[in-house]
Amino acid sequence: MFTRTKTSGKHLSRALSTRASTVLQSLGLPTSGELAGVYDGQWKGSGEVMESRCPATGEVLANVRTASPQELHETIEKSRAAYRQFRNVPAPRRGEILRQIREELAAKRDNLGALVSLEMGKIKTEGVGEVQEFVDICDYAVGLSRMMNGRVVASERPGHVIYEVPNPLGVVGVLSAFNFPVAVYGWNLALSLAAGNATVWKPSPTTPLCSIAVSKIIAGVLERNNIPGAVASLVTGDKETGKDLVKSRDVELVSFTGSEAVGRNVGEKVASRFGKVILELGGNNASIVMPDADLSLAIPAVFFGAVGTAGQRCTSTRRLYLHRKVAPEVLERLQKLYKSVIPGDPLAADTLLGPLHTRSAIKTYLTAVDYLRSSGAEILTGGSKYSEEALAPGNFVQPTIAIPKSPEPKDRIWSTETFAPVLNVAIFDELEQAIEWNNNVPQGLSSSLWTRDLRHLGKWMGPSGSDAGIVNVNVGTSGAEIGAAFGGNKSTGWGRESGGDSWKQYVRWSACTVNYSDAAPLAQGVNFAA
Ligand code: NAD
C-alpha cells in the first residue's frame, strides 16, 4: 500500500512517490524545487525552508520557502492597502467573488481533499468533507453579502434617527491549526471577505501545501476580477511568524485556532494592544449515554467521535459517561468496533484510521497511556503503537479505550485534551452526576447526550445543563454544520466562527445618530443653554 514508486521524470528531482506526485500535480503544485510560501499579489518567500512531511509514510512532500520577518511586514502593509480599496467594493459584488471561489473549490474538491489526506493524514472522505465545508461557508457568505444588515433604532429625540451600521473592519489575521488545514481558513476568509476586509493567513507550519493550494485557487479568482491579491494574503512560517502577526497593530482582528496554551498567549497579546480576537482552542468533549438511548445510533456515533481523524478533531469524543444499566453492552459493542479498525493509507477508500499528524504526537499519546496505566486505569483495548512493519514509517497508534481508576474531573486524565484517539470511560447512576462531570473540566467545546426522554433533553439544554458551546442530543460531539455559530466556552476561548451571528465580529459597528429636524436637543433632556 505504501510502496514508493520512484518517478523517473527529470523534473521530479525530489523523487516523489507517484502516490504524492499525482495529488500535487492534480492541483498544479510543483513536484520539484522549492515552493514559494508567501502570497500578497505575488508569490515569493525568502525566509527559512520548511518541510511538508506525509504523516502516513514519512515522505517529504515539499520544501517551502517561508516568509522572512520583512516579508511578513510588507505583506501586512499590502493587505492594508488592498483593504482600503476592497472596502469600497459593494458587498453583493464581494459576494459574487465568493461565488466564483466557491465554484473553483467545488471543481477541485476531490483533489484538494486528497491533498488534505496526504499532508494532514485524515482519511479521504474527511479530507473531501473539509473542502465541502469551505464550499458550504462560501454559499452562506454569498447570501450574507446581501444580508449584512444594520438596524434602525428609535431615538428619544424628535426628528432624530439612530442607525447601527456594519462597516468593513480592516485586516484580519487568521492563524490556523494543523488538523483542519483548509476549513478553518474557509470559515474566516468567507465571512471576512464578505464583510469587506483583507486577510493575512498564517497556517500551521506542518500543512503548508494545503494553504498554498487553497491560496492559489483564491488568487486566481481575485486576479481575474481585478481585485488586489493581498485581499487574501498567505504567510507560511513558524511560531515566530505567528507572534509577529499577532502583535501587529495593523491587524484589527486576530482569529486564532489552536491549543489552549498558545491561545492564552495570543489572547493576552492582542488584548494588550486593544485588538479584537477570536479564540477557537482545545476541546475535551464528553458523550453521555442514558439507559433509554437508542444504542444503535449512540455506539457508531461515539466510535466516529473518538476514532475519526485519529482523535485529532477539536470536537473528538474524549470522555464517555455511561449509565450503569447500559455500560456493559455499550463497552462490549464499542470494543468490537474498535477491533475491526484497520489502519492504513488515508488515501485508500476503505481506510478508517489514518496516522497521527506528527512524530511528536506519538509521544504525547504514549505518555497519556503510560499515565493511565500507572494511575491504575483499566485499558480495554489499544494502548500502543501498531507493530506492523508496513506502518512503521507513519505515525500510527491504536485507538484506545480506558476506564480510569477515578472519575474525578480534576484529575489530569479528565481535565486535559490529549490530541490522540484515547477515550476515557466512567459509569454514572444519575444524569445530574454525568452533567457535573461533563462541566467540571476547563474546556467547553462540544457535548452530546443520548436519550429518548424529553425531560433529560430539557435538563441538558437548559440553565443547569451542559456548559459547552455545542450541546447536542442524539448527535455525536464531532462534525458540526456551518449554519450555526461554532465555538466553545471557558478555556476553549469563547470564540464563535462560521454561521449564526459570527459575521458581526468581522465588521466595525458604527452607531450613527442623525438629526433631520431644525432643533438640536440634547439626550436625556440635558439643558446647556448659555
Ligand atoms: P498550536 O497551538 O500548536 O498551533 C496553532 C497555530 O499557532 C499554528 O499556526 C502555529 O504555528 C501558531 N503558533 C504557535 N505558537 C504561536 C505563538 N506563540 N504566537 C502566535 N502563533 C503561534 O495548535 P495545533 O497543534 O496546530 O492544533 C491543535 C490544537 O488546535 C488542539 O488543541 C485543537 O483542539 C485545537 N483546535 C481547535 C479548534 C476549535 O475550533 N476550537 C479547531 C481546530 C483545532
From TrEMBL:
Active site: residue positions: 280
Lineage: superkingdom: Eukaryota
EC number annotated for this UniProt entry: 1.2.1.3
PROSITE patterns: ALDEHYDE_DEHYDR_GLU
Any single Pfam family the record assigns to this protein: Aldedh
One GO MF term: aldehyde dehydrogenase (NAD+) activity
Gene3D superfamilies: Aldehyde Dehydrogenase, Chain A, domain 1, Aldehyde Dehydrogenase, Chain A, domain 2
Keyword Repeat appears in the UniProt entry: no
UniProt cross-references to CDD domains, sorted A to Z: ALDH_F7_AASADH
Subunit structure: Homotetramer.
Assigned protein family: Belongs to the aldehyde dehydrogenase family.
Protein name: aldehyde dehydrogenase (NAD(+))
